[in-house]
Amino acid sequence: MKQQKFAVTVDDLTVAYNYKPVLWDIDLAIPEGVMMAIVGPNGAGKSTLIKAILGIIDPIAGSVSIYGKPYKKQRKLVGYVPQKGSVDWDFPTTALDVVLMGTYGSLGWIKRPGKKEKKTALESLEKVGMLSFKDRQISQLSGGQQQRVFLARALAQDAAIYFMDEPFQGVDATTEIAIINILKELRKEGKTVVVVHHDLQTVPEYFDWVTFLNVKKIATGPVKEIFNDDNLTKTYGINYKVSVQK
User: Fold this and answer.
1) pLDDT tens digits, residue range 191-239?
2) How far apart are CA 48 and CA 24, in angstroms?
3) Are β-strands 209-214 and 216-222 bridged in parallel, bridged antiparallel, or unpaired?
4) Are the CB atoms for 180 and 97 separated by under 8 Å?
5) How far apart are the C-alpha atoms of 56 and 47, rounded to whole Å?
6) 25 falls in which pLDDT band (50, 70, 90)?
């Protein structure tokens, strides 16, 4: 039997703000090649978990490894699409320039992007349907278009693992379908995709793995096995009934 390979391993992770725990003693192993949703109520620590994995927030205890090594040593393997609200959309830069930033990790700080990197950036914009907007200032794009540009930036990194913090927030149905199709393509290529997600109804349709979180980890595993009323009730604290497609 083939041994399961883990892309991300979280051990005993605790994060606190002003001495109040936001995440408490989290153990989590994310298998390679899954598309995983992180679900839970507001204030459950979903975004904090991603930021702690990426080293944006320092935990007070615990450790994180990416393919068995610290994140700092595996940075090039990881792509990140932040929450829309955390981005300065008025910064004077074009869609193409934003996507080119995704190639910086492979270049280092000294080299500037060249023809190869520009080709990668243009191809990434084409994948998300934004090539015709390459010279447009990001402040002039709609919310859905901005989200596509940031997804293109992550694609330009050609990462092994993608973390996305509420990528469907404030986008129209067409953009949501376009984004989820791209994420499914990444999974087909063997990439690991981790998404903070709010719409419980679409979890069975979009994802094959799910983690229930409410400061503590409630459950994690295949959607078909653990996405049920019992775990939803434990996570949200009320009786939940969601029609689960199996």
Assistant:
1) 999 999 999 999 999 999 999 999 999 999 999 999 999 999 999 987 7
2) 11
3) antiparallel
4) no
5) 11
6) very high
Q: Which amino acid does the sequence have at 28? A: L
Residue 85 has pLDDT above 70, yes or no: no
* Sequential DSSP letters for the chain: -PPPPEEEEEEEEEEEETTEEEEEEEEEEEETT-EEEEE--TTSSHHHHHHHHTTSS--SEEEEEETTB-HHHHGGGEEEE--GGGS-TTSS-BHHHHHHGGGHHHHTTTSPP-HHHHHHHHHHHHHTT-GGGTTSBGGGS-HHHHHHHHHHHHHHTT-SEEEEESTTTT--HHHHHHHHHHHHHHHHTT-EEEEE---GGGHHHH-SEEEEEESEEEEEEEHHHH-SHHHHHHHHSS--------
Residue identified by tokens 């200032």 is 137
Q: Which tokens in the block code for residue 93?
A: 């830069």
Contacts made by residues 15-21, CB under 8 angstroms, sequence distance 24+: 15/45, 15/48, 15/52, 15/57, 15/59, 15/60, 16/60, 21/215
In sequence order, the β-bridge partners of residue 6 are 31
**CA dihedral defined by 44, 45, 47, 53, rounded to 10 degrees?**
-150
